[in-house]
Amino acid sequence: MLIHVAIPSYELDKSLNFYRDVIGATPFRILDDRVTFGFHNLQLVCHLTNRNDNQPNSGFYPRHFGITFIEHTEYQQFYESVLAQYGSFVYSGLSSRFSGRSDEHMTFILQDPSSNFVEFKHYLSPDSSF
Asked: Which is higher by pLDDT, 81 or 3?
């Protein structure tokens, strides 16, 4: 089973660069009106959208999607790599949420060139991610 997420893109070239280079997704269909990526079990489609047709919210909620890392080491390495190479996309740096609870997790948020938010998480207890 794959997860399918479709989001707006104001400039497909910038979306292509962000999701391929920053996130590490693989573009597998590049058309005039959309770019489709594969990333683990996620099929992500960036649809060309006129900026005036789709005004984003000014904040992270509710407009975001995310990726949860199972392995802490992989999560930390990914965060450090993004921070070092693509720090301008960091909307919210690494932090802990729900300290002391069973669903405690680490999180950071990136914002793509079309103002879409992508949250990256790692739960301290893997069983609490659902």
From this structure: 81
DSSP symbol at 120: E
Tell me: the pLDDT tens digits for 61-118?
Answer: 667 888 899 999 999 999 999 999 999 999 999 999 999 988 899 999 999 999 899 9
90, 110 Cβ separation under 8 angstroms: yes
Tell which residue, 29, 24, 51, has the closest CA to residue 39.
24
List the alpha helices (DSSP H) in the chain.
12-17, 72-86
- Domain range holding 12? 3-50+64-129
Q: Are 124 and 105 in contact (CB under 8 A)?
A: yes
Total count of domains within the chain = 1
Cα–Cα distance, 98 to 103 (Å, whole number): 7
CATH number assigned to the domain comprising residue 72: 3.10.180.10
